[in-house]
Amino acid sequence: MTPTEIWDLHCHLSGVPGAAPEERLEKLLSFADRMGIARLVMSMGMELAEDASPENMRRQNDDVLRAIRRFPARAFGLVYLNPKHTQACLDELNRCVRDGPMVGVKLWVALRCNARELDPIIERAAELKAIVFQHTWLKINGNFPGESTPMDFVELALRHPQAALICGHTGGDWEQALRMIRPLQHVCADLAGSDPTAGFTEMAVRELGPERVLYGSDVPGRSFSSQVAKVLGAEIPDAARKLILAGNLMRLLRPILTEKGIKI
After folding, report:
1. What sign results for the dihedral spanned by CA atoms 221, 232, 209, 258?
2. How confident is the model at residue 1 (pLDDT cuts 50, 70, 90)?
3. Is the pTM of this model over 0.85?
């Protein structure tokens, strides 16, 4: 059964053809239309910085703001933050989420997420009803110095049971990460960015339940088609497929969208 709607949690502007953010999002939407993807959640700008300065954070967020304001019915945004700069992060949260159209936070590889510097950011995000997407990976050849592992993510999640936290990439090594985050009922797993390996989605549903699994692509690093295939090709009930492809993200975003007066 083909779902009626797909929302993609995990999309980027970097690496997409186009001289302006609006052009790049328009290109992504043209590809999304081929797969029947209704909405994209965008984060990070046209030129990435792994350890972004406050000025670079603002530029990257401005790129996303420009893009999503051009296509408000098709795209949402996450504010990109580097937790090394606490006050700048809180200022950006207020500018882009409280006073702007963004609906969540994107944290990448500047600082491992078990660091205490994240606490005021996560607390403020929870106050704003914003979702928090944390990149996680567990690499056999070693992570980047500031790159979070699933173990780091669990430490963060245990300190913030009130926050809507998403374990990005399901830790890369998803067989380990799924078992690590299983007891944390306020945590969801993102399927994006890895090869469409048989059994990934099935294990996520089995370990977490279908209500805690989210479809994302990590486009343009991965294709829409390969990542949607993880869900459409999985041996799971159709009801679970619908939740993963759109229903769960809608539920997570509903509180902040209601605050902003956006109906879905």
Report:
1. positive
2. very low
3. yes
